[in-house]
Amino acid sequence: MIDGLIAARKAANITQVELGQRIGQRQTFVSKFELGERRLDAAEFVKVSRAIGADPFEIMRKAELD
């Protein structure tokens, strides 16, 4: 699912810095979950998805099919 978040962020032309600002976190927070150094809980996943403008449920569906 993280790969889906990364792809959605890049497709939306949003940097890690911009995403961090949108969710009230630092760029390092975004980097850590994108690198797999930190996990996102369900609420964080939804918040990040929506901040990117992506449907969190669609990201989950795609991850399930991969």
Q: Would you write up a description of this structure?
A:
The chain has one domain (2-65): 434 Repressor (Amino-terminal Domain) (Orthogonal Bundle), CATH 1.10.260.40. It has helices at 2-11, 16-23, 27-34, 42-52, 56-65. 71% of the residues lie in helices and 0% in strands. The radius of gyration is 11 Å and the shape is globular. It has 66 residues and is mostly helical. Helix 2 (16-23) crosses helix 3.
What is the topology?
Elements: H1 2-11, H2 16-23, H3 27-34, H4 42-52, H5 56-65
Give the biggest beta sheet.
none
Question: Rg to the nearest angstrom?
Answer: 11 Å
Return residue spans where pLDDT drops below 50 for at least 5 consecutive residues: none
The percent range for helix content is over 70%
- CATH fold assignment: 434 Repressor (Amino-terminal Domain)
**By helix and strand content, what is the structural category?**
mainly alpha
The CATH level-2 architecture is identified as: Orthogonal Bundle
Number of helices: 5
| Terminal CA distance | 10 Å
Proportion of residues in β-strands: under 5%
Number of domains: 1
Spell the H/E element sequence: HHHHH
**Principal-axes shape call:** globular
Kindly state the number of beta strands: 0
